[in-house]
What we know:
Structural class: alpha+beta
Number of strands: 30
Strand order of the largest sheet: 5-4-9-8-7-6
Number of helices: 22
Strand content: 25-35%
Shape: elongated
Radius of gyration: 42 Å
Amino acid sequence: MTDARGRVVAWSTSAAQLVGLDSTEAVGRPVVDLLGTQPRWLTGPDEWRGTLEIRGLEGDSRQVPVRASRLGDGTGEEPLWLLAHETVEPFPTGHTLTHWLRTDCPVAVAIYDARLHCVLQNGEMRRLLGASDEEHVGQGLSAALIGIGVEEWEARMRRVLESGQADEGFPVRVRTLSDPVHERGFTASVAPLRGPAEQAVGVCVTVTDTAERRSAQERLALLNEASISIGRTLDVMRTGQELADLAIPRLADYVCVDLVDALLSGEEPPHGRATGAVLRRVANRSIHEGTPEAVVSVGDVDFYPANSAQAHCLATGRSALYRTPSEAAWVLEDPLRMAKVQEYGFHSWMIVPVDARGTTLGVAMFLRSRHSPPFDDEDLTLAEEVVARAAVCLDNARRFTRERTAALTLQRSLLPQRLPEQSAVQAAFRYLPGAPELGVGGDWIDVIPLSGARVALVVGDVVGHGLQASATMGRLRTAVRTLADVDLAPDELLTHVDDLVIRLASESETGAEGVAASEIGATCLYAVYDPVSGRCCLARAGHPLPAVVRPDGTSAFLDLPAGPPLGLGGLPFESVEVELPEGSLLALYTDGLIAARQQDVGTGLDRLLLELSGVHTSTDALCDQVVEALLPDHRTDDAALLLARVRQLDADQVATWDVPADPEAVAGTRAHVVRQLRDWGCEAAGFVTELVVSELVTNAIRYGSSPIQLRLIRDRSLICEVIDGSSTAPHLRRARAFDEGGRGLMLVAQLTQRWGTQQTPDGKVIWCEQALPAEI
């Protein structure tokens, strides 16, 4: 390309290959120096065609057919000449490049000078922008377009002019002079026009209106996404919200979904068309934050009059389209809805029935507000297809809700919603069900606070899936918690649970889903950790070995006797006591965790130790890491994991005194207790503690046997323990009016939060707990 004086202002790659000079060597030089001929086309007509002799670097030359076309409109701007190597047959007479660019080019083209004023626009650009040459030529973009998108467009043109780098294929949304109400979407590209020395002297803008093609693509994409994103959870409320989320903002500016109440509870709606107009709102979604347009909140009931589009839609099962507010008479009669229409400029409605298998489940309403074009028949067809997909998913969700209601009732009672507060361990757990088609499983975990600041850790696995497994698991979990409250040793507790499973099997001839009574069984691991001594006592019934990671980073599985699974009977369980340094991590799990990736159990155990041995900030984060590393996305079995990082109480939190078996020692013991409470800053608990200690120590001296010991523990509560060598447990009774004794334990029970007894190999412990002074 040359200017009017014959100097090169643009030099393409093809020109460089033809002549042997690149653009840096060619731009700015006279064309006669490069082509060896005078620029004869400068004085000719708007188009010149001829032959030029092109000299190469090696001295050779050849004749090349060339066409020169004048670019410019005769308005006084300096014209440019475009030289093109003729490699095809010449254009037909009258169809020059300039004429084609101005009139027949299917792409909208406009040229702007360094001031970003339009120098030339072709016919396609005039059609797209709706601006004549009188309105656009000599002016900037803002003379032809309206909206904030114009500023961004001009900013891009300015950057191209300054940097010399093209900006291709960016989307813009503007309003045109021919339609100043509705926004239109264009795809624009800006390329620099270079003068001498490669500086940009203007920009060339090309614009493509891809609205129709993009609209078709968006419709297909919306339908495809509807098949993927709606109905993923089999939850009625969530499925309705997925429908609303999908439609905003690609189909509407506001969407609400109203369903019949029966759908939410899983009941079977009346077959056929609904006749009422009392619906429950399950979803709202808007282009505005917080959905301020909604008249009814999610979960509330919406009432529609008999003449409303919703009532008519429910009765007939046919959709309705309103393109103007005057057509929607039922809206005009409702002051609250009319206020929202005026505030947000709603002007177009679509009411679509949610219909599945011949049953009307509700209605979906789509609205458009100001700056959006009215709905058309294609929009209604698209909305009906999307709602039809959602309706099937909603009906599936309803059926699933009905079937799982019984299972969910059991499942909520099987696992703790949150772990209880205690100081012995920092615990976290994960329970992940298997494939939904298998039904609810029988894995469970539990963390149970015990006396003396101790804690019990439980993990179990009932054989099978479904309601039978869930029911059995619920009964076993309740039994374990009850027996733990009695403070039984782990081996003794498992023995009692084993007896329970045997009774459950004998009481039922055939379990649910055809499971024979003899096949009812479970595995269980029960551990008790004492933060005072730092020791943990464990026993298992056919359950996988627990893993422990010590503070130095070493990890291993504890060597525990396997024990038989629960329900076999006749075989003993054995307890093992191990010392766990503070900070040790104890991992209890079910076999679904280690055999989840179609791998042998040994490989799963190795992977578990590897994941547990890493550096972690919390047990909760470690739970997530272990689950993610060991479990696949699609599980064939339930999996449960319980992690507990053990803690030890400081020495100054525990005080112990040996008590002689002499009634006169009671007064001295009370004095020790009072001093200790003063050192702990717990003087407010002194009166109650003195009385409790006096009663329990006196009972131990009078009815127990040596050795007698008193221990106070300051933890989340103030714990008082009296240990003696007698295994005879005390009994709470109500003393008569003239009885001289029998009121000691009654006083303890009334003045403290909890009390109880614990059997030990050498005797028993009577304990009680009371709130710390800060909690009194």
